[in-house]
């Protein structure tokens, strides 16, 4: 049986260690931070060993290799010339997310050198640029929950499904709580009829049928969602061609409970099942009004 070899790399704090543990759980033999000069020898011994029962290997490589990381390019070329098939999985996240994660864990960035985390992140991006450019899979974990990362890895490496390079998040929110900082596209639906002023609907949300039906019974709502879906479907292949990995579509109303939730759910349902992208939905502020009243 041919050796399945995956190099797991990417930004520090983006989830490489977590991904390696998940790959180990699904049957991969995992090695982290093996010295670059030993990679070729290890792969050769594993692939050629008649008695070896190892058929899946995941190797973690990153900036901890220091100056030797630059030698990885020649190692990969030698593997290709030797007929070894490999894949590169790159874990990425936006700068603000990485900074936040480092501050929460109180760990220092490997390239910060007692300086600012942002400087270390910028230097790391430069060091890893050649690997990202050659990656087969790029996963942006800025918005991914741990279970969503596991599901994505299982989809790729267990179920052998086609990799979807663009992850789309449909996010509802309330303008009175602020526009999401990570939003790529923001749509304001405060012009739609508001269920808040219907006493029996006020305590419900856009996930409840009465609220959903109230909002969507109006022509203006139906026309808007049709035009919005057409726009997003036009944009998606262009974003994929550009190489974008993460798209956050934010739909906002006043409190983030009724209209924005309804339209976000509608958008999610109509985009779900499309090819070339993954899809998730999140309602940021759906419970905030009730929480404030309790306090």
From TrEMBL:
Protein residues bound to ATP: 10-17
Q: Where does GTP bind?
A: 62-65
- Residue limits of the RapZ C-terminal domain? 167-287
Keywords (alphabetical) are: ATP-binding, GTP-binding, Kinase, Nucleotide-binding, Transferase
Keyword rRNA-binding present in the record's keywords: the answer is: no
Any idea where the RapZ-like N-terminal domain is?
3-160
Q: Which PANTHER family match?
A: RNASE ADAPTER PROTEIN RAPZ
NCBIfam families cross-referenced by the UniProt entry:
PRK05416.1
- Entries under HAMAP family matching the protein: RapZ_like
Q: What is this protein called?
A: Putative P-loop-containing kinase
